[in-house]
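Chain A, query sequence.
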Amino acid sequence: MNLEILEKNIGYTFKNKELLKQALRHTSYANERNIESNEKLEFLGDSILEFLSSKYIYRNYTNLREGEMTKVRATVVCEKSLYKVAKLHNFSDFLYLGKSEQKTEGRERPAILADSVEAVIAAIYIDGGLEEAEKFIVDNLKFEIEEATKHVGDKDYKTVLQEKLQEHGEVKIEYKTIGESGPDHDKTFEADVEVNGKFLAKGKGKSKKEAQMQAAKKALENLN
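Chain A, predicted structure.
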C-alpha cells in the first residue's frame, strides 16, 4: 500500500509514517493482529475538527449569531461531509480492514470512512501541529461551510409544509418509509407524506430523514 499517494492527495507529508498507518487502521484489522486501532486518534480528531471549524466560522462569518454558527458547524462536522472528504482523496484505497469488514464492503461504508478522516486530522496534528491540521480542515471543508451559511436561516421543508397546511387549523401530517434499495453502505430510501390520510407526495434520499425532506419539498411544489 503506497501511502505516499495518499499524502500527495491530502497535501501533507508525515514525518512519522506510523501515525498515518494507525489513522487508517480499523478496529477489525487491529483486533486480528492485537495492535492499536485508529479509535483514539478518531476521538482526538473529532475534538480538533470541532474546535478548528468553530474558529474558522467565528472568524469568517461575523454576521452569524451564536445559534446560527452552531447550526453551520453541525451541518459540516458530520458523517456526510467527512465521507465526501474521504471519497475526494480516495481514503478507501488505503484503509487497513479486517477480513470481516472486507467481506461486507466496509471499505465503502460512510461511517468507517468518516471516522478515518477524523483520525487523520489527529495524526496530522500530532505529527505537524495545529496549523497543519487547520490547513487540512479549511482546505477540505470551507466550501461546505460556505454552502451551509447560505441556508442557515432557512426553515426546512417539513417545517414550512407543516406551517402551510396548518394555516386554517390542525391537520395530521404523517411521513412513511415506503421502500429502500441498494447495498447496506449505499442505501436509497423512499418516503411519502400524507395529510389526514391523503397522499400528497413522495421523495427519495440517502437517509430516511432526507427522503422525508424531499417528500415535503415535492408536496410544497405541488401545493404551489
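The CA atoms of residues 14 and 128 lie 8 Å apart. The chain has eleven helices and three strands.
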